[in-house]
Amino acid sequence: MGIKAVAVLYLLALVVVVVGVDILFFRNHVLERLIANIGIVLVFVAFYFRFLK
């Protein structure tokens, strides 16, 4: 699998996690949703730099 395919799958996983958490836990909480989304993105970025780069 090429590096672009891995990047696309990784980005797709990020989107699925963010949308899933938004729908399941933070449907009516705007500020909490924003904070959670930033946290999820930071975790994905840290994981990317630690293991995939």
List keywords for this structure.
mainly alpha; elongated; single chain; 2 helices; 53 residues; 87% helix
From the spread of the alpha carbons, the general shape counts as elongated
Query: How many whole angstroms does the radius of gyration measure?
Result: 13 Å
Summed up, the domain count is 1
N-to-C terminal Cα separation, in Å? Answer: 15 Å
Structural class: mainly alpha
Which regions have little confidence, pLDDT < 50, spanning 5+ residues? none
Helical proportion, percent range: over 70%
Got a strand count? Answer: 0
Order of helices and strands: HH
Number of helices: 2
Main sheet overview: none
Mean pLDDT figure: 93
Strand content: under 5%
Could you characterize what this model shows?
The protein is an all-alpha fold and 53 residues long. It has one domain (3-52). The protein contains two helices and no strands. α1 packs antiparallel against α2 (30-52). The longest helix is centred in the N-terminal third of the chain and has 23 residues, at 3-25. The protein is elongated. It starts with a helix and ends with a helix.
